[in-house]
Amino acid sequence: MDTISAFITLLFVMDPLGNVPIFLSVLKDVDEKRRQWVLARELLIALVVLLIFLWLGGALLDILGLKQESISIAGAIILFLIAIRMIFPSPYGLLGETPEGEPFIVPLAIPMVAGPSALAITVLLVSSDPNRMFDWTLALVGAWAAAAVLLMCAPLLLRALGNRGLIAVERLMGMILVIISVQMFFDGVGAFLHLNETPAF
Where is the chain membrane-spanning (predicted)? Predict the structure, then answer.
């Protein structure tokens, strides 16, 4: 995976357009003067969590004795489930009931931005090529910055696209993520089968 592909995948997984209605709903009870500050704080927390997983995820895999192929397959399954949820959303919403008052870390930073699929992708990137940390960091920060801009402009996006427009974009992104997840699964299975091939004599 190159830097651009990593950027696009991470941006789709963070799903900023799909999160716009959720962010607006969670922040509706927060004082209007504090909303942008709270949103900026939650986005920065999400970035820190993502960077920690990016830089320390490889060491965690080594400690647990996990191989790249297992991460690729597990990441593909998680990504596929997220994509299916984007295409066929639950009538009960993504998060169910959320605590009243000002949000802190949950649910905006985690899991809406730094969700399990985004964290799995960051670990997968590092395990696929540990020597390209600069590229992966650039892709991650770029995807986060793009998602942050879209979420900071959430009220404008909702007015411009409307609920139907946001739903249509989210489902289109879900379709693309399904394709990416299937490819990741095939890559992981292919690498596993190649790794366990019995040499012929």
Answer: 6-27, 39-61, 73-92, 104-126, 138-160, 172-195
